[in-house]
Specification:
The complex is a heterodimer of chains A (about 260) and B (about 260). Chain A is mainly α. Helix content of chain A is about 80%, strand content about 0%. In chain B, helix 6 packs across helix 7 (about 240-260). The longest helix of chain B has 22 residues, at about 105-125. The chains are: A mainly alpha (about 260), B alpha/beta (about 260). The structure holds adenosine-5'-triphosphate and magnesium ion (MG).
């Protein structure tokens, strides 16, 4: 009994323990080998720097958070609309797919200069980069969820005289929901990547900009503090969507994740 | 009165390709219970699709209630080998699904939801699923899912019930139990039934008329009336006339195999 509980405890807190462990190793390496702070600051000095510049970090973090969420929201809307179209109409699928795949292969950072020419530096290119980088997974997942609908389920409704819209509403969309929620987790992390990339290249606001500015003044502790803030925001949003996913699509993971909750 | 009528119906899934069924003519009377048996791939499911209007015949005509079929029908309930319940809906919500689609229930649903729910609950209770209404399909056993699936096929009071091997995936005990359940439902409130099955005992036990189909391309080889008195208790399956009927059908199937 004791052993079992300890195992459970370990599984539950494994992620925290790993983080603490890695921080300790990091600290020991920096202190032990006497690594200069302008190359690789120890966690303690990153922490100190973070506490010290709390206010500017928060301001920039808020900016990044805002641009990411706006870009992400646009991505969700566009992704769902296109995904429904692609997943429902074979003709749209045929027409769009090569284009979309090609578009997705382009590194989104390549768009930033274009966006800067069009919209100037600042918030707009960051929002658009976040959008560009994150709408594709949403689109693909929604389309897949709709396109892989079992023909039998469709037949059940069709034999009742259901219209195409009825089938979409009653079966298609509910069935695509788990795919949709799964894509949100991927999309939100990608959206952070997009906005931070854009900020490092073309902005005077946001965590990306803060890190760029700090690295040019050799303030490595602040750069790492910025990295960690992005990481934390990413994890929090990911967990938020993971939680929503679990809540709304319990039927899709019946029994599978029971132990992991 | 004839309810479903096939007139020289043939169907090829691909244009100019092999026929899946060929020159089928049969007629089903109102409230008659027919069973279709035949080797695998002979076109039994195809027959169902034609009646439900999901596919159109390549040649020939299918009539329901004197009208030629064009497109999906509304007075039909269907159940398949897989229960095809929607996993995100509870059993009750699954059973209510047709009411959200078929008129006149559809437009009355908002006003009469309580009444309709009571109707669905009563039907579920009737098939022994009381207490399971708010469970999800995956929390039900295979037999329970199939019961729910049959409820869903019947909730909108269709005139025609089509069953495509609905008991095929179940164990023998559950299967016999559901035979009796189906027979009772049918006798209480008659409707026309077309049952596709592999199981000759099932066909003889349930049907008024059994049709035997040939190997692909499917044709009707034999039409056999089962004149065993109703209601048929399970014990009838151990009687001489029953065994004789099954035996005759088995011989027909056997001769198809050899040819
Ligand atoms: N959607 C389809 N497209 C092309 N051919 C099909 C399709 N559905 C069935 N067929 C063909 O039509 C023939 C009859 O198939 P059907 O599903 O009606 O057989 P069945 O009698 O129901 O068989 P089983 O007893 O195994 O369910 C088969 O030869 C099959 O290959
Ligand atoms: Mg079949």
């Amino acid at each position: 009994m004791m052993v079992f509980n300890r195992r459970k405890f370990l599984i539950k807190h494994a992620s925290w323990m790993l983080i603490v462990f890695l921080l300790l190793v990091w600290e020991m390496i920096c202190v032990g080998f006497n690594v200069p702070e302008y190359l690789f600051p120890a966690p303690s000095s990153v922490w100190a720097s973070g506490v010290d510049r709390w206010q500017p970090i928060m301001m920039h973090a808020w900016q990044t958070f805002f641009t990411t969420l706006v870009g992400f929201a646009i991505a969700v809307v566009v992704g769902v609309v296109l995904g429904v179209a692609v997943g429902t109409y074979p003709i749209v699928y045929k027409a769009f797919y090569p284009l979309l795949v090609g578009f997705n292969s382009i590194p989104k950072v390549a768009f930033v200069p274009v966006l800067v020419v069009w919209f100037g530096i600042g918030t707009v290119p960051a929002i658009l980069t976040a959008f560009l980088i994150s709408f594709f997974p949403v689109l693909v997942n929604v389309a897949t969820g709709l396109a892989t609908l079992e023909p039998e389920l469709e037949d059940v409704l069709r034999s009742l005289g259901a219209s195409k819209l009825d089938i979409l509403r009653k079966v298609g969309l509910p069935r695509a929901l788990p795919y949709f929620f799964a894509s949100l987790k991927v999309a939100i992390t990608l959206a952070f990547v997009g906005s931070v990339i854009s900020e490092t290249v073309a902005s005077n606001m946001g965590i990306g900009y803060l890190m760029m500015a700090a690295s040019s003044s050799m303030d490595m502790a602040l750069v790492f503090a910025g990295l960690i803030v992005i990481g934390i925001m990413g994890v929090v949003m990911y967990e938020l969507f993971a939680w929503t996913e679990k809540r709304f699509t319990r039927w899709a993971n019946r029994g599978v994740n029971n132990t992991a909750i | 009165m004839v309810f479903v009528e096939f007139e020289d119906v043939s169907l090829a899934y691909e244009e100019g390709g092999d026929l899946a069924i060929k020159d089928i003519s049969l007629s089903v009377k109102q409230n008659e219970f027919i069973a279709v048996v035949g080797p695998s791939g002979c076109g039994k499911s195809t027959l169902m699709k034609l009646v439900s209007g999901l596919t159109e015949p390549t040649s020939g005509y299918v009539y329901i209630d004197g009208r030629q079929i064009g497109g999906p029908q509304k007075c039909i309930g269907m159940a398949f080998q897989a229960s095809n319940l929607l996993p995100w809906r509870t059993t009750l919500e699954n059973v209510m699904l047709p009411l959200e689609i078929v008129q006149p229930y559809r437009s009355q649903l908002r006003r009469k939801r309580q009444e309709f729910e009571a109707m669905a609950m009563a039907l579920l209770e009737r098939v022994g699923l009381k207490g399971w209404e708010h469970k999800y399909p995956w929390e039900l056993s295979g037999g329970m899912q199939q019961r729910a699936s049959i409820c869903r096929a019947l909730i909108h009071k269709p005139q025609l019930l089509m069953l495509d091997e609905p008991f095929g995936a179940l164990d023998a005990f559950t299967r016999e139990e559901l035979w009796c359940m189906l027979q009772e439902l049918w006798q209480e409130q008659p409707f026309t039934v077309i049952l596709v099955t592999h199981d000759l005992r099932e066909a003889v036990f349930l049907a008024d008329t059994v049709y035997v189909m040939s190997k692909s391309p499917g044709q009707i080889l034999v039409k056999r009336d089962i004149d065993i008195e109703r209601p048929r208790p399970l014990s009838v399956t151990y009687t001489e006339p029953f065994a004789a009927q099954v035996h005759v059908l088995r011989e027909h199937i056997g001769s198809i195999r050899q040819s």
